[in-house]
Amino acid sequence: MTEISPEDAARHRAKMEKRKAVQDAEVAEKSVEKGLLIVHTGPGKGKSTAAFGLALRTLGQPDGAKVGVVQFIKGAWESGERRALESFGPRVEWHSMGEGFTWETQDLARDIAAARRAWDKVREMMDDPAIGLLILDELNIALRYDYLPLPEVVAALSARRAGLHIVVTGRNAKAELIEAADLVTEMGLVKHHFKAGVKAQKGIEF
Amino acid sequence: MTEISPEDAARHRAKMEKRKAVQDAEVAEKSVEKGLLIVHTGPGKGKSTAAFGLALRTLGQPDGAKVGVVQFIKGAWESGERRALESFGPRVEWHSMGEGFTWETQDLARDIAAARRAWDKVREMMDDPAIGLLILDELNIALRYDYLPLPEVVAALSARRAGLHIVVTGRNAKAELIEAADLVTEMGLVKHHFKAGVKAQKGIEF
């Protein structure tokens, strides 16, 4: 057990009193309530996973708000997070509209058609007042490959109704989307077990 | 709808065929199965949220593996993600062992004692073979303030049993922990709505 002198304790208390005053003042000056446009981008892990974590936060609210998920790239394959979220029944509406990664399909016209179908579904869900959080998984990939017109997408997301939070995931988020967003997190890759020859692990990658 | 010439389609296909070959070769050369030590750090959002998203991935596995959560800083307050994860019943074991942020308690001895109790709980859960994923939420904060001896913590986490994934969250992860980890993601803050005077939003921050 670390020894704490009375001087250490007093110094710590004084420092933390100051810190708390700053913190309280910062919280007090914020007042706007709005549905946020959130972007998770960058080469690191956790972009989609953090979006699904946010789904939990919505599902834990007693107001009964629903979570919508549209996956732009992933197809109908099963995943742990999908199975787990579907245990919340009608509070989660999940649509995997992709045809797989673009290097799997190798068919540009098919990729574009799939992205358009997914986007139509998004527009429909944006109009559903029961949905409090909408996750647009890998939309950044569809935008990066120009499967959808960026101005159309940014305009529609910016015109979301009050109270609807939207999370867009995927690498290489477009500058215009970042500009329109309220909250942008860049997931940076510091270290990855694949580099050490460790394969995809159950419960982590799938 | 974007026009695609036959040349564009062929070029796309050739590029993607190459990309797929690289991808397949990369997957094939990985063979090690192990429980991962994962660190989510950095100033951005999503460190804890991505950890809870991983919990979903474990809970969606049909093997019935349990998720353990030990919160080092947060106290007994309710949160959306906790309520949602607790709907999985005995598959989630959640312990909020903190006394609040250190600038709230302003009492160093109390913070150290709380961190030690939390760490004892972690050691106990690391020995429980039913647990497949253990989330040590904000452990990095406890390590940063020297509430726990870093060598003891790193040694114990490194000696985890095979098959146990551990996720450590919090800003300012120690270099020794990053060194011991298999997978490290740095969440970078690109843009935050607090700066625009928008307050903490239900379903996003709590």
Largest interface: A-B, 94 and 96 residues
Overall 3D form of chain A: globular
Order of helices and strands of chain A: HEHEHEHHEHHEHE
Q: Within the CATH hierarchy, at the fold level, what is the topology of chain A? A: Rossmann fold
Helix coverage percent of chain A: 40-55%
**Count of folded domains of chain A:** 1
Task: Tell me the name of the CATH class of chain A.
Answer: Alpha Beta
Q: Specify the CATH architecture of chain A.
A: 3-Layer(aba) Sandwich
Q: How is the largest sheet of chain A built, in terms of strand order? A: 3-2-4-5-1-6
Number of extended strands of chain A: 6
Oligomer: homodimer
Task: Assess the beta-strand content of chain A as a share of residues.
Answer: 15-25%
Overall pLDDT level of chain A: 87
Give the CATH superfamily of chain A: P-loop containing nucleotide triphosphate hydrolases
How would you describe the overall organization of this protein?
2 copies of one chain form a homodimer. Chain A is an alpha/beta fold and 206 residues long. Chain A has a single domain (34-196), classed as 3-Layer(aba) Sandwich (Rossmann fold), CATH 3.40.50. Helices cover 42% and strands 18% of the residues of chain A. Chain A has 8 helices and 6 strands; from the N terminus they run αβαβαβααβααβαβ. In chain A, strands 3-2-4-5-1-6 form a 6-stranded parallel β-sheet, sandwiched between helices. The longest helix of chain A has 23 residues, at 6-28. The two termini of chain A are 40 Å apart. The mean pLDDT of chain A is 87.
